[in-house]
Amino acid sequence: MAQQLAKLEMKNIVKEFPGVKALSDVQLSLYPGEVHALMGENGAGKSTLIKVLTGVYSIDQGTVTLEGKQVSINSPLKAQELGISTVYQEVNLCSNLSVTENIFIGREIKKYGRLAWKEMNQHAEKLLERLQLNIDVTKLLSSYSVAIQQMVAIARALNVSAKILILDEPTSSLDRDEVQQLFAVMRQLKKDGLAIVFVSHFLDQIYEITDRLTVLRNGEWIGEYKTEAIDRMELVSKMIGKDLAELEAISSKTTDISQSDTLESMLQANEVGLNGKISPFDLELRKGEIYGLAGLLGSGRTEMARVLFGADKADKGKMTINGKDVHFTTPRSAILNKIGFCSENRKTEGIIPELTVRENMILAIQSVYGWFRYLSRAKQMKIAEEYIQLLNIRPANPEQLIKNLSGGNQQKVMLARWLVTNPDLLILDEPTRGIDIGAKTEIMKLMTHLSKENKSILFISSEIEEILRTCDRIAVLRDRKKVQEFDNDRELTQQDLMKEMAGGM
Amino acid sequence: MINRLSLDYKQLPLVATISLFVLMFSFGSLRYTGFFSTQVFLNLFINNAFLIVIAVGMTFVIVSGGIDLSVGSVIALTSMVTASLTMEAQLSPFIVVPISLLVGTVLGVIQGALIHFYNLQPFIVTLAGMFLARGLSYMISVETIAIDHPFFNFMANSQIPVPGGNFISISVVIALIVVFIAMFVAHFTKFGRNVYAIGGSEQSAMLMGLPVARTKILIYTLSGFCASLAGLIFTFYMLSGYGLHANGMELDTIAAVVIGGTLLTGGAGYVAGSVVGVLILGIIQTIIVFEGTLSSWWTKIAIGALLLLFIVLQRVIVWRSEKKHANG
Amino acid sequence: GSTDESSGNGENTDNGTEQTAEDTKPEETNSDTEEKESDDQSAEKLVIGFSQVGAESEWRTANTKSIQNAIKDAGHELKFSDAQQKQENQIKAIRSFITQKVDAIVFSPVVETGFETVLREAKDAGIPVFLVDRAVDVDDDSLWVTFLGSDFVEEGRKAGNWLVEEMADQEGPVNIVELQGTVGSAPAIDRKQGFEEIVSKEDKFEIIKSQTGDFTRAKGKEVMEAFLKSDGENIDVLYSHNYDMAIGAIQAIEEYGLKPGEDIKIIGVDAVRGAFEAMADGKMNVTIECNPLFGPQLVELIEKHAAGGEIEKRIAVEESMYTMDQAEELLPTRKY
Amino acid sequence: MLKGMMKTKLFWPIIVLILILVINLFFDRSFFSIELRNGHLTGSLIDILNRGAPLILISIGMTLVIATKGIDLSVGSIIAMSGAIGAMTVADTASEGSGPLWMAIGLSLIICLVVGGWNGLLVSRVGVQPIVATLILMVAGRGIAQLITGGQITTVYYEPYSFIGGGYLLTLPFSVFIVAFVFLMAVLLTRKTALGLFIESVGSNADASRLAGINSKNIMLMVYMFSGLCAGVAGLILSSNVMSADGNNAGLWFELDAILAVVIGGTSLMGGRFYLMGTVIGALIIQSLTTTIYSIGVPAETNLVVKALVVLVVCLLQSAEFRRKVFGIGKVKPTGEQKGREGVTLS
Ligand SMILES: Nc1ncnc2c1ncn2[C@@H]1O[C@H](COP(=O)(O)OP(=O)(O)OP(=O)(O)O)[C@@H](O)[C@H]1O
Ligand SMILES: Nc1ncnc2c1ncn2[C@@H]1O[C@H](COP(=O)(O)OP(=O)(O)OP(=O)(O)O)[C@@H](O)[C@H]1O
Ligand SMILES: [Mg+2]
Ligand SMILES: [Mg+2]
């Protein structure tokens, strides 16, 4: 395809934000019928590049040429008109509208001068079929999980006759099956001659679907490569900018299972459940163990976590912590019992956009201390700097507003918020969403480290291997019900889990 | 259409409001002789036609997550312009009416543009608009100008009979037409849906490539137009222009809209709801008048109390059925 | 409901203000034992709808009380409605009086204009309408029986005349500052007009500042302070559209270090009790009466009309003007 | 960094304030002069402070409410109530002892706390939208106030009462000290404890705050109580200043001015960050504007137009977009993302 003229050329792109140079002299070229990966650590500038291309941000310098002629794209609207269809990193839909509306708004179907909802609903269903998702499209988007919202966003992007399709971390909250569905569609579109930009932190996915890739680092353009021509090690080293030797440590996938020695129980739940959300389940968490929840999308993992944390009030069953009965009516009561919960929904349940990184980090611990015992500025700074260092958050500026951080960096701050409280039980719902490899391994290390300190962790992830790699015991959920519990000895394989999750046929 | 399937849930506040209105009406009927008559019900419309019209405009504004405080003053300004043009400049209604309709519309455009392009807060911009409009009407004249003109007298006095020996005014017809158009616009046009989208999340709307700028400006223009139309209706109603007309009516309007189940945070609400909201305020008024013994402070307290009673009941209803919804 | 309403007036009496104390009892009996009463009343028990502007000033409250009490003492049934200073409310009220088929409607218009339609409805329903305090400007005067109330312009003139006499032997310039009422309100406009009409005849008088004080004490004080700041000693006269603003202004003048009544002559409208107190200790030179206590007079008219008597269209409330030196002996006689 | 932001926040309001004051200079040479008259410092500036006291007070309360994404329309009525209560308690005491004074102050402040709490409960527990929740009291409150005064404008003859709003301390009006005290308390409570952080986080994202263990309901309850209290104090000052209670007119339309002051001060109605100092400056702008209108002899009927224009100018000056378009100040900003519905923010 190289001899073809490029569909899109971005040259010498520069984008600065107050205090941050997000992109300096970056370039990108797309050819018809290719899937092109944007690679880079958190904060490398991938999303910014995409937003610059689609007119969300204005370009400081540089040129964009679309099919030979130079264009200036000053708004997402313009971008769409030029045939660029985008799925941005965070779910950017209107949760107060129905699924159908979210898919069609902006390009509604009209009939006798009025919007034809019937037709649109049918179309919407067809579109989601294509992604193997059948849900009630007339329901409000807000009634669905992040994962589903992500799928809807994708469906919306597919719904136009676009020349270029941009997907910024579409897979971060999807699990295997959804990802496969998405890839199938992408291959189809590829055949039709679309150019697709694909961002992901999962190398496997990159190697599975993409043809070429562009690597960014700290907003700088590192290089453009054919995917099959560059191997993992090399790619990662290009991304992090360390040489292969240093990488061995990180990449060595053997963060071995921290077989907890004690069997002393920490939290016990029997017949805890919440009508309509999660059916009653028994659960025992031991001190110093990492307990995994596996399940398909909508299987109720998040619900289970939320009930345990008191985010949703359990309407039946009883819980004990270290022997004494507890009944959580609010998250606060759970937190005071030294439980932490890192939500899967960073945007709406995680970050406090208007506050700085520092303030976001100390929020939980401060709420434990209460309003009167205010952490001294010095203490706050110490905490902030420590975790910025530990999770290598960029920009490394505690006073940056968190809403100005890149997705992955925001996620790291969320983790920091809970690590600071040093809880006995830490519930992590998709904690590695949108986090780059370096940080991911860092977090895995942290988890094992915590469990060594006899803390227990409840770990939800859509990446089965991640679960297998780290968890002592694993529960499988299906249809809002806990159906199985495995001890994670060496025999346990992904297949076993998958069978159980899908409904052991 | 779109809401049918999830009607129970999404339209809940609306349903609650309507049922509470019925409740209040029957309360009045039981308590006061002569309350339970079609005319009393129709009077709610006759006396509040203008409020209905501004409430419609305001609904769009609030659904989009904004607010428009200028409406009350725009009514005053419109009435003033209409009156002075008719009585002092001696112009014919065919010139006067369009001009006065322009008054609010233009102000609306300006407000919308300021809010969008300079990223100012609607509350403040429209507050300035409120000061400005009232100030301008004082500058036209501090005295009230009575209108005596065949056209206006006709609009004011002609009664449209309805079955059962009752009647409504022309203004009511206008108001109802506005309501129906608005309902259609809200649910069956792109503009309508864009308004809801912006209310849900302006940023998402922008990223989805919706014409945010155009829509927002249009919203305030619409509201401004409705305010002017209401001003005209008000002028029919009062047959006079006056700088103090509709003082503080913006709050009544907002109250009506919110009572009608629209969220001030934007994204959810129904035109129909706002109409019922207006009727609710109207019926509170009527009940108090029929009570006919309240001193002026007890009147205030009673209004507050009824408002409270109503809102709490509404909350309770919504809660209970939300629970049902969760469990169902 | 009426029960908590009357108990509410109970509280009212605890707060100890004679007027309410007076009218509580009749009101309670009224609302509780209507039928019995109507039996006692041989014939002629009228149902009277009274739509008041609001309770924006002391004058207004006194006026309301006077009318309410007069009606009840005469054993008629009162339907009272307070418009909260909103014309639309007042129209609603009158409409509902019509639907309730009252025998007579009494109301004091928020503004002169805009009542034609509803008045016509009243006429069609054959209900006589009595205007109090303020006129309506409607050409067809068959729409109301009579207008009983003060003439604001005349009040303004009185104030002007007094000033002209007072300053007769003084050669100008005489600098006047004016505290207007609420912008656009009838009393404000007319009192301003009447006053200017007189003083403008002699060019030694100059109104150097004129600003609204919204009829309130606080505003009156604030505005006067500003006046004093900018014009200080060379203010000779203060003309205030009502008593409250005058009181506020007096405080301001004292705080500024001048003698109200001497350094600055003070003319106020509304001869309320407070005004006499102020005059008694020499802080106010003259007050023009604007009498709110014409309830009884009104009821007579209504009964007379009901009995088929003839009534002329315009009945002035007997009012006069009081100066400092009269204040002492009159003070005790003032009802409110 | 934060300091830097505060600066930019305050910069334009201060400019405007200075502008308004300077304008006065053209009409009145002695505008800035402050002299010592019989033991009282007097001068236009002092007056503005003195007159502005009530507005500043309620604006401070309002700031915290708005920071939680709320709004309090009832402050005007609360002013009327507290004034009424205060005045009625001392109305018919002729004594000179300070007993009744404390009585009055205590009584009205307590009631205002309760009333504010009522607002807070409606908003935080019942979940009524702030604007409606407080609208109820805005209407009913005046009624209650008039009920207390019996619709009269009761004059107070009890001398000590006048000290609150009319007295002098160390040559300065006492109300200035009250404002200073309340302001300092507010600053200390919000910036030296975690309250400020909690308020801002609740206002910026209530769900997330709840999950972070903040008791957002109590935070809300508290800010409304505080707002009520501030209004109460303001009410006492106002009524004591004119030695009377006016249920119908005291504090009429104050709520709008207060909200205006808050926004001019740089706090966004969308909640989140709040700037107490900015609010005070905003209030001062409004007050000096009013005083200016009075003293330079603007005809009464044009007051509102002037006010409208000034408000517009202030807001436009604060809008980064406007400054960029007009003076070309400031770097090109992202068109979307940052420009949420946050209104006038420079962050
Ligand atoms: N609105 C903004 N204001 C200031 N800085 C910003 C803004 N948006 C992004 N940045 C900065 O630009 C840099 C690039 O951010 P970007 O979101 O492009 O990273 P990314 O490659 O998408 O990372 P991730 O993989 O976590 O999504 C980050 O350092 C971020 O802090
Ligand atoms: N297939 C589905 N159909 C309808 N609703 C769904 C479906 N999947 C999820 N939901 C909604 O999303 C909400 C969240 O589901 P939940 O997050 O617990 O699933 P999960 O196991 O956490 O999967 P994920 O975390 O990947 O979304 C549920 O309350 C449910 O209402
Ligand atoms: Mg990104
Ligand atoms: Mg989940």
From TrEMBL, chain A:
A GO MF annotation of the entry reads: ATP hydrolysis activity
Positions the record marks as coiled coil are: none
Where is the protein localized? Answer: Cell membrane
Every ABC transporter domain range: 8-243, 252-504
Q: Which InterPro entries match?
A: AAA+_ATPase, ABC_carbohydrate_import_ATPase, ABC_transporter-like_ATP-bd, ABC_transporter-like_CS, P-loop_NTPase
Q: Which Gene3D superfamilies match?
A: P-loop containing nucleotide triphosphate hydrolases
Keywords noted in UniProt: ATP-binding, Cell membrane, Membrane, Nucleotide-binding, Repeat, Translocase, Transport
> CDD domains, from UniProt?
ABC_Carb_Monos_I, ABC_Carb_Monos_II
Task: Extract one GO cellular component term from the record.
Answer: plasma membrane
Major place of residence: membrane
Superkingdom, natural source: Bacteria
- One Pfam match, given by its short name, reads ABC_tran
Its topology with respect to the membrane? Peripheral membrane protein
User: What's the protein called, per UniProt?
Assistant: Sugar ABC transporter ATP-binding protein
